[in-house]
């Protein structure tokens, strides 16, 4: 079977989505339409020039022409879009134009943020209605899709490689509070900075590390200076050594306004590093039976400052959360390990092909 996948995720994140397709014996070729190439078995990269890749409008025009060309020349059975805006939308439209099957893997912001905007809601729902299979990360995301036939919707989670994100409790902890993600508004990073400042004024000098890049980086760096904590906060930029950073961190913190199920929380649990997070998306549900991720119900600097101090000042609680992460890791691998990823994708592909 030949399929098309279109996406824009970073290399490592995209691999966590494709691992089940790679392991599927029925798939011979995966044509990957993406700004940049991916070195991955079965993948045939279809990439634009560097100039087109940097221009959103030109990229979208280029992507549409490539999709139409592949659908015309190759025997494509299924088109898959990872993330709806605009990858999933284009995938569905082109697939249906050629009377082929379409699968969309939704992320949290697709469903809980952009898909709820008045201007986009009808367009979002109508496109999903045409899908043959829709992946969500849990029951909360599913609840937003009540107008979509429920037999099209399946839970799917990313693969976390246990060899990369190894369980290690030993080693020097250089940072107390660590954020990993894009520096954009929805991530609410200012809450973490302000919580560090609150604790600092109380005599608690927690060292914070901000890993990632984005349009708000300059503004956030200025904020750390204004709050008087520039000596405690390090902005590291985008990094490829997230595993090592997690291993040298005492606590991972996420204060997002909207999420699905962030990979950083899964990765930190796999590494044995406790985390705290705002109660958004599927986070509280996924971690409800495990105490390795502490949920902060109010997304305020005061609430985060209190939770950070409660965890970091209590060595017994930290140790308990570290041990709980091992339980989470083992259970997650039983449900979403490499073999299970292949089985889940195989079932989804078969459901898409029989869907009328």
UniProtKB/TrEMBL annotation:
GO terms for molecular function: glycosyltransferase activity. Keywords: Glycosyltransferase, Membrane, Transferase, Transmembrane, Transmembrane helix. It is an enzyme of class 2 (transferase). The keyword Transmembrane applies. The chain crosses the membrane at residues 78-98. InterPro entries: Glyco_trans_1. Residues 171-317 form the Glycosyl transferase family domain. Its EC number is 2.4.-.-. PANTHER family: GLYCOSYLTRANSFERASE. This is Glycosyltransferase. It comes from Alkalimarinus alittae.
């Amino acid at each position: 079977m030949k399929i098309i996948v279109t996406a824009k995720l970073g290399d490592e994140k995209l691999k966590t989505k494709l691992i089940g397709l790679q392991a599927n014996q029925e798939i011979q070729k995966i044509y990957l339409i993406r700004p940049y190439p991916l070195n991955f078995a079965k993948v045939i990269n279809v990439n634009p020039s560097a100039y087109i890749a940097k221009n959103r409008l030109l990229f979208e025009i280029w992507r549409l022409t490539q999709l139409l060309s592949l659908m015309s020349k190759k025997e494509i059975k299924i088109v898959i879009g990872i993330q709806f805006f605009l990858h999933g939308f284009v995938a569905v439209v082109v697939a249906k134009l050629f009377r082929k099957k379409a699968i969309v893997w939704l992320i949290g912001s697709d469903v809980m943020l952009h898909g709820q905007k008045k201007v986009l809601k009808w367009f979002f729902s109508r496109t999903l209605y045409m899908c043959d299979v829709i992946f969500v990360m849990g029951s909360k995301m599913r609840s937003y899709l009540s107008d979509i036939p429920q037999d099209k919707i399946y839970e799917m989670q990313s693969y976390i490689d246990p060899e990369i994100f190894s369980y290690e409790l030993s080693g020097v902890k250089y940072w107390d509070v660590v954020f990993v993600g894009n520096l954009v508004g929805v991530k609410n990073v200012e809450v973490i900075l302000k919580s560090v400042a609150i604790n600092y004024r109380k005599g608690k000098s927690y060292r914070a590390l901000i890993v990632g890049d984005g349009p708000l980086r300059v503004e956030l760096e200025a904020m750390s200076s204004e709050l008087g904590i520039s000596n405690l906060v390090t902005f590291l930029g985008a990094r490829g050594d997230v595993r090592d950073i997690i291993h040298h961190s005492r606590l991972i913190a996420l204060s997002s306004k909207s999420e699905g199920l962030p990979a950083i929380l899964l990765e930190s649990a796999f590494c044995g590093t406790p985390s705290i997070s705002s109660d958004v998306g599927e986070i509280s549900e996924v971690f409800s039976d495990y105490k390795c991720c502490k949920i902060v119900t109010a997304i305020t600097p005061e609430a985060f400052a209190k939770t950070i101090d409660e965890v970091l000042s209590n060595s017994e609680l930290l140790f308990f959360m570290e041990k709980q992460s091992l339980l989470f890791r083992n259970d997650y691998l039983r449900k979403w390990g490499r073999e299970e990823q292949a089985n889940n994708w195989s079932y989804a592909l078969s459901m898409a092909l029989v869907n009328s």
